[in-house]
Specification:
The structure holds 2 protein chains of 2 kinds. By secondary structure, chain A is mostly helical. Chain A has 4 helices and no strands. Chain B has one domain: Spore Coat Polysaccharide Biosynthesis Protein SpsA, Chain A (Alpha-Beta Complex), CATH 3.90.550.10. Chain B has 8 helices and 7 strands, in the order βαβαβαβαβαβααβα. Helices cover 39% and strands 17% of the residues of chain B. Classes of the chains: A mainly alpha, B alpha/beta. Chains A and B meet through helix 4 of A and helix 2, strand 3 and helix 3 of B.
Chain lengths: 120, 218
Amino acid sequence: MIETFEIMSILFFILMIYLTFLAYRRGQFTKIHLIFWYGVWIIGIVAIIISNKLNKFLISLNIARVFDLYALLGFIFLLFMVFHLFRVVKNNEKRLENLTREIALKPLKNYENSNFSRLD
Amino acid sequence: MGKKIIAVIPAFNEEKYIGEVVKETRQYVDEVIVVDDGSSDKTSQLAGEFGAIVLKHKINLKKGAALKTGCEGAKLLNADIIILLDGDGQHDPKEIPLFLKKLKHTEIVFGVRNFNKEMPLNSRYGNIILTTLSKILLKNKISDLLTGYKAFNTRIYNKILWDSSDYSVETEIIKNIKKYKIPCSEIRIKTIYNDPYKGSSISDGVNIAINMAKWRLK
């Protein structure tokens, strides 16, 4: 029998599927992003539905409950995402800095043969 | 033919002091570049009116990034010597000739301050702690880690070039000097604090300490 927590989890994943679709329709996600995030949410739903059938597998891993396994996997996934986002933010910071610098230096690049204004 | 000397002044909302700093500095150098780091006041306008070449950052990137833009600009203008000083009146342009004199015998000159009562309490102890820490971790002999007043020959720019976009820039320059064994000297400069609440904060100090540890481990 499905428990309340499991129903809440499935509803959460359905909501995330809807939000992912919305992001795709608004052009924020590409088709690859859509497929990746659909995959993540669908795996979540399937994992909850088949949770009762995982008991034998859990014993071999020394894990008491199936939700402990999901919590562990979720934590690993979160750590990966934090690492990935950290890299993305750092890259974007650098790109933004370089772009800002390029714009700032543009008038100076024509300094020698132009009427570059000191008054900006 | 004499060497071309360019002063680079990063500035963020410095309309109160920038005009005077530019005016004074122009007496000792060939060009003054002011990098307006996303100011919302009249910093750019005033710096331009007083004769500086103004490079504008559309957004605030912090001191290290502003200095890099200014030095890249100085390179484009074929500078032989670059002088870095702050736009808030902390550094007296009258001391520029002292830097230039000393620079004849070395590659980079640091203006070091006395950690006396002229310096606000938090800055004084922050400086003492960080300078001591840098001597231990980075094994350098510079007696004022956070000094922003310095002059160097442009030919060493690529060696001292920094990644830090924030206040860690001063420490990273010192780290690079040690790494490439670049000859350096110090001169004593005045300790001037017009606004004790401006400049680096405690969190900047923590960030610098973390960066020093990171560079030490590299």
